[in-house]
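Ligand-bound model needed. zinc ion.
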Amino acid sequence: MKEIAIWWIGASGVAVDLLEVVQRRVAGEFGLPVGAHLSAERPEGSLDPRRRQHSSTKILHWLAEHRPAGADRVLAITDADLFIPILTFVFGEAHLKGRAAVVSTARLAGDGLMLPDPARFRARVVTECVHELGHTFGLLHCQSTRCAMARSPGLREVDAKNETLCPACRERYLELATENGENDEQEKHPHSGRR
Ligand SMILES: [Zn+2]
Ligand SMILES: [Zn+2]
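Prediction:
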């Protein structure tokens, strides 16, 4: 059974409630089991001292090497501010058709002046987690501004999105999953491996 491992790699204590919401929604969206990986190990060498931000690309490489046993994919969530060289910041990054994705909560809480309501914050985190995992399954950016796979350079774009894939992306996801054999076991043994 393919499984997605969710791993909190932040500096502060683990936000159990948040991870539970992400776990549930991601499992529902992709139709795959999602488990929490509770290791206290954290990526090394990702901090850029000059920018005081962490390289999402370096974190992805680290995650790919430290993927939990039995997990087909790893989704890391962190409170560290992430960047790629050409951008001021990113909400997350993923290996396209790969195994690793990372999402940062640092910029999703707001502009630092005021915390958004918790429900909105959770919705943003879930949306970006679905987005980055979507990339690992081979989904590209979507033109529909309501789709979780829409590009989101800022919070305005994140808030315009649903937490879910649009019908076209959902169809593409199912096509890719079949091509890659992601859902083989589910199709052949609909009741095996379920918890
Ligand atoms: Zn993207
Ligand atoms: Zn879409």
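The first helix runs from residue 16 to 30.
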